[in-house]
Design goal:
Elements (H helix, E strand, L loop, with lengths): L1 H7 L1 H4 L23 E6 L10 H5 L3 H7 L8 H13 L5 H5 L3 E10 L4 E8 L2 H15 L4 E5 L2 E5 L2 H13 L6 H10 L5 E5 L1 H5 L2 H7 L3 H7 L2 E8 L2 E9 L2 H6 L12 E8 L2 H19 L75 H12 L5 H7 L2 E7 L20 E6 L2 H17 L5 E5 L2 E5 L2 H8 L9 H6 L8 E4 L1 H10 L4 H9 L3 E11 L2 E10 L1
Antiparallel strand pairs: 1-2, 1-6, 2-3, 3-5, 4-5, 6-7, 7-8, 8-16, 9-10, 9-14, 10-11, 11-13, 12-13, 14-15, 15-16
């Protein structure tokens, strides 16, 4: 519905402008309690929101210029709607036909079971809005239903859907829903844009059950998800509140990001997923076997053989890690007589393109077991046991700042030892050490020197012994660094992402890049750091993704 997209387009576009709700009727007040998916934007200023997102975004001049942001007081509607109208309805003029009636808030509510969706647009002049909305839909050549409730125009493709939504809302609005209200209150500041999804309700739909597969229980345990995009100090933050299941709560342990070495410029930590990775691997193998080894996946609905790559589009497989499955070209069969050759030496390795029965690609169908066996034989890995050990309770990759400026001039893999890269496993000690030692040997055989060492709670794999000792030290002080706290306020967070953008850019400038590259780096110097972290309180988890500015 193109005309509806013109109105709803503000949902994404307004997300670059932050003025919090100043009270009054919100979109959730005019949408029914049966709403399962909800999204809203709000441009109405609030005393609680002290920093305007435009102030932060204008610290990156190139970005601000491209978006047309010339002032901290710019009206995003004047930036966005004329562009949308020009692309879809050039017969409608924003200043004359839209600006006089459009308000500060826009919301969208959908019910997947009923297959209905309603857009709620705040209006300042109902009479003029009728004419403007009519022009938009006539321009798009589409039908629509329209009703008004508490200062909002409610729009849907069918009038019956709008009328039904109004009647239902008068009985109970989304704002009256206990689940919705509790999530919104716990999340706090709703910011410029927010959204809410009732995952438990969606997971009860047959199509969702089939698509989620093995992930169904985890999604149901999450219950609902609430998000908000907001400004906070010198950072832009996307906050996500959701439920967590009992298994995840009991296994989320490891070294907090704040305890990493002080000179860490990038870190990625994954906590509490060891068991999940093992389970996902088993499900993945079962699905591959079903698809490729004579099960339901061998033929399509028309009885023809299925393409093995089709399995990668399966919704169940979409929830688990998917390795690259190589496609081996079939050599042309020669038409000339084949000369007589001496019998092959049985000690020679099998030709992967020949008729060796152990080759997973030689038989008409893809042999999953032989394929996995070949990976284990080539790498020495033991699947899925090594995956479970690798991720364990916590897996953390940390990169230090030392010698980063030399990265562009490294001559070979042996040069990696001059950099500080370390991978720490919080897992059962003996299997963890055995695994990193095997990986180090495999890397060494290929010319990449790595150090494998035991730690108090697992093992570490690093480019040099110094980096290994640093990440194993439980008294690291990354949590005391200003760049870190600007994006990860809770230094005790276990699991997450941290990138010290400012220091990395400084190191790149030390490498004396070409003039055009230097210009791009210097234009991005207003960016300070990027961070993502999660904390758990009871049965709810709060994930915060933050981008801070200098």
């Amino acid at each position: 519905m193109a005309a509806a997209l013109v109105l709803g387009g503000g949902l994404g576009a307004y997300a670059v402008y932050d003025r919090l709700s100043g009270g009054g009727t919100q979109p959730d007040d005019v949408l029914p309690a049966s709403t399962q998916i909800y999204a809203r934007v709000d441009l109405d200023p609030s005393a609680s929101q002290k920093i305007d997102l435009f102030t932060l975004l204008r610290k990156v001049p190139d970005l601000a210029d491209e978006a047309g942001i010339t002032s901290d007081e710019a009206d995003i509607r004047e930036l966005v709607f004329p562009q949308i109208l020009a692309a879809s309805c050039d017969d409608v003029d924003y200043e004359k036909d839209v600006e006089p009636w459009i308000g500060d808030r826009i919301g969208v509510g959908a019910n997947v079971e009923d297959k209905t969706a309603v857009i709620a647009v705040q209006v300042t002049d109902e009479s003029r809005s009728r004419d403007g909305i009519k022009q938009l839909f006539e321009c798009a050549g589409e039908d629509y239903g329209l009703a008004y409730l508490d200062g909002y125009a409610l729009i849907s493709p069918k009038q019956a859907d709008v009328d039904q939504a109004v009647a239902a809302t008068k009985k109970a609005s989304l704002a009256d829903s206990e689940k919705f209200s509790e999530d919104v209150d716990e999340l706090g500041e709703q910011g410029v844009a927010s959204a809410w999804i009732d995952l438990e309700a969606l997971a009860s739909i047959p199509e969702a059950k089939e698509a989620l597969g093995t992930e169904l229980d985890r999604v149901v345990a999450m219950g609902s998800v609430a998000t908000a995009l907001r400004a906070d100090g010198d950072a832009i933050e996307l906050a996500v509140l959701s439920g967590v299941d009992e298994k995840r709560r009991s296994t989320t342990k490891g070294t907090p990001l704040g305890k990493l070495p002080a000179d860490t410029v990038a870190a990625l930590s994954v906590a509490g997923v060891g068991d999940q990775v093992s389970e996902a691997y088993d499900s993945f193998v079962e699905e591959l076997d079903r698809q490729f080894s004579g099960g339901a996946g061998d033929t399509g609905l028309d009885g023809t053989a299925s393409d093995p790559s089709d399995a990668l589009a399966d919704p169940v497989l979409a929830t688990v890690p998917t390795p690259d499955v190589p496609t081996v070209p079939t050599p042309a069969v020669p038409t000339f007589p084949t000369p007589t050759t001496e019998p092959s030496d049985p000690t020679e390795p099998a030709d992967p393109f020949g008729s060796d029965p152990t080759d997973p690609f030689a038989s008409p169908g893809f042999d999953v077991e032989r394929f996995l066996d070949s990976i284990e034989a080539e790498t020495g890995l033991q699947l899925p046991a090594d995956l479970e050990t690798l991720f364990g309770d916590n897996l953390t990759l940390a990169i230090g700042s030392k010698n980063l400026e030399k990265l562009p001039t490294l001559s070979g893999p042996e040069g990696l030892s001059t950099l500080d890269l370390a991978l720490a496993l919080t897992s059962e000690k003996a299997p963890a050490l055995d695994l990193v030692q095997r990986i180090a040997k495999l890397a060494g055989d290929n010319g990449i020197p790595l150090v494998a060492s035991p730690t108090d709670d697992g093992a570490v794999l690093a480019t040099n012994q110094g980096a290994a000792d640093e990440i194993a030290d439980p008294d690291g002080s990354l949590g005391d660094q200003d760049a870190f706290t600007s994006v990860i306020p809770d230094g005790d967070a276990v699991g997450g992402l941290y990138v010290d953008i400012g220091t990395i850019l400084d190191k790149l400038l030390e490498a004396d890049p070409p003039a055009d590259v230097r210009k791009g780096i210097e234009s991005a110097k207003a960016l300070r750091a990027l961070g993502a972290s999660s904390t758990t309180d009871g049965d709810r988890s709060l994930t915060r993704v933050r981008l801070s500015f200098d």
